[in-house]
Design a protein that fits this description.
- The protein is mainly alpha-helical and 306 residues long.
- The protein has three domains: 125 residues, no CATH class; 41 residues, no CATH class; 118 residues, no CATH class.
- 49% of the residues lie in helices and 11% in strands.
- It contains 14 helices and five strands.
- The strands form two sheets. Strands 1-5-4 form a three-stranded antiparallel sheet, with no helix packed on it. Strands 2-3 form a two-stranded antiparallel sheet.
- Helix 5 crosses helix 6 and helix 6 packs across helix 8.
- The protein is elongated, with a radius of gyration of 27 Å.
Length: 306
Amino acid sequence: MQYLNDPRQTRLIDPFENILSPLAYKQLKVGWQHLFRETVLELMPVEALKKHFDPTFGQPTKELYSMCGLVFITEFMDWTIPEAANAYMFRTDIQYALNLDPENQSMSERTVERYKKLVVEDDLAAGIMNDITMALVAKLDLSVEVQRLDSTHVFSDMAQFGRTRMMGVAVKRFLAQLKRRDQAAFESLPESLRARHQSSAHMLFGDVKKDAESRRLLRQQVAEDMRDRIGRFSADAKHNARSTFTLLVRAFNEQCEIVADKIEIREHPGGDVVQNASDRGATRDGKKGPGYQVQLVETCDAGDVM
């Protein structure tokens, strides 16, 4: 059953005023929590979210405005799921921001995960950000007539691998998943291949000499390993749709090419190549390294322009 408490309906008596000291309550009234409660909370996409629940049948949902708001704040604060659940239950300022009563609040990690999944699956994030931005522009009486577009490089919080190690990690991850899902297929692979990729990602190929020729031969060997695995499992429906296999194919196509039925390592693969198996969206800037190119728009009032 859908449970909504419209934040536009003001309370006759604010329960937080009675449980907080005058100074603490004053801080809440001038802090971001009050702005969130008065302006942002009502913009949450509860109309889209409530369609997942029956209007009248079954147990009441968690209050939907507060759950949308919790998902938004969780992303803003970079909280884990347990931290979000604890904040909902124990943090008075978060309860104030979410227009909750500061008592008898309960929240399980599973519930937070469920509502977060619904927001993601319905692709509601972009709409939330647009609505909040426009509401804050109006609330703060800002002018966005003049805009300047610029780009910046955001570094990804990930390990940085060289080309050979990145290729090796792609093979290693596929082999690890193959071992879990299909032990017989894994054990049918050459022992030398399995041994070559069994070390941890940071220790992979650590026993290879550092001279240029040894590195070249290693990269060529890893490329051969990649093509052999792709050739063997590309038609196997049990494995060719797995994320580790698609990573293997992508890394091979980005770093290698077939010339006269021989594998050649691309001399300059470019910057739009996978940098880490755990962060496939990151690419490489020639000067600044792996990460993301982000476009930022700065706005100002035309009257302030010199």
